[in-house]
Amino acid sequence: MLFTIVTVICVTVYFLLMFTGGKSWRDIRELFYGNYYAEDALINETDTPNTPQAVQNCIDNNIGIKTEVYLTKDRRAVISTYNDLSKEYGIDKKISESTLEELEAAGILTLTQLIEMVGDKVPLILELKVSDDNEALCQMVGDSIKASELKNIAVCSFHPGIVTWFRDNAKNIFRGIVSAPAKEFKSLSKLNRWMAGNLGNNGACRPNFTLYRNRPHSIFVKWALVSGVLNGVWTIETAEEGKKKEAEGKEMIVVRGFMPETVHFKDLPKVEKTPQQLEAERKAAEKQARYEAQKAERQRSIAEILADDDEEFGNEDSFDEFKEEVAEFVNEVKEEAAEIAVEIKEELEEIREKIISKE
After folding, report:
1. What pTM, to 2 d.p., does this model score?
2. 333-344: per-residue pLDDT in tens?
3. In CATH terms, is domain 2-255 a member of 3.40.50.720?
4. Given the DSSP bridges, would you call strands 174-179 and 64-71 parallel, antiparallel or unpaired?
5. Which of 355, 159, 187 is nearest to 271 (CA)?
6. How far is Cα 250 from Cα 232, in angstroms, rounded to an integer?
7. pLDDT tens digits for 106-142?
8. What sign does the CA torsion over 80, 84, 87, 93 have?
C-alpha cells in the first residue's frame, strides 16, 4: 500500500513538473512579446527566402524574423529553410554535406552575416535544426549571440535536448520549444511522440516560449501554456487568420508570405511593484544621485584650482607639476566613480532578481 501511495505521489509530481516553463527577465520578454515574425524573412511571396533582400525588407517594415540554422560539413552555421538545397536553390546537395565555401558561392547567408544585418533593429528567432553534432551547433550559435551582445535574439528547436543545452549553458539567451500535434511526429516512438506533441518535455528544457503548430491543442498543451511560457503559433498564411490568433490570446505569431497590418499587436501586462522593490529602486536612485553630486563637486574643485593657479602658468616647471596634480586628482575621481558604479550595478541586479522572482 505504501509503495502504491509513494508511486502515485512521484508520478503526480513528475506529471506536474512536465508542464513548467523557464523564467526570464521581463525586459527581455518585452522584446519578443506581442510581435509578428516573418518565417524565413518572407513578407512577400515573390521574394527568395533568407536572402539579404528578404531580410532587409523585414527590417524596413519593422517585423521580426524567424529562420532556421543548419550546421555545414566543416562545422559552420548557415541560414536556410531546408537541409536539402534542391528545394530552393536547385543544387543536388545537402547543407550537412557541403562546406561553407560551397554554400557561400550559392548565396547562402551565414549566421554571422544575418546577425550583423539584423543588429538590434528587429527581434530575431533562430530555430536550430538537428545535426550530427547538436552540441557543436548550440555552442556556435550561443557564442555568436554572446559575441554580438544583443538581447533581441532568441533560439528554439523541436529537439528538447537543444533547448536544454541553452537552459544549462546560456541561461540569458531567450529560448523556446517548437512543437505540433503528436501524430505529426511519425518518426518517434509512441511515448516520445506523446511527449513532444503535448509539451511534456517542458519540465526538462524549461522554455521561455512555445511555438505550436496552427492546429487544435490537447488539454495537456493548454495546461502547459498556463505555466508562464509565452504562447506562440506557427505558421499563419493570411492576415485574417493572424487576427483570429490575436483574438485567441497568442503572444507570438509566425507568418509567411504576407505583411501584417500591425507588427506589434500586444504589450506585456503591467506589474505592480512590491514595497521591497520600490525601496530597493529608491536606494539605487539615491546612490546614483550622490555619485552625480560628488562628480559635480570634483569638477568644481578642478575649475577652482585652474582659476587659482592661473598666474603660475608662465613657469613651465610649475605648469608640469600642476598637470601631474590634476592627473592624479582625476584618477582618484575615476576610481571612486568606478566603485560607486559597481555598487549601483549590484543594487540593480538585486532589483531584477526580486522582480523576476515575483513574476
Report:
1. 0.75
2. 777 777 777 777
3. no
4. unpaired
5. 355
6. 6
7. 889 999 999 999 999 999 999 999 999 999 999 999 9
8. positive
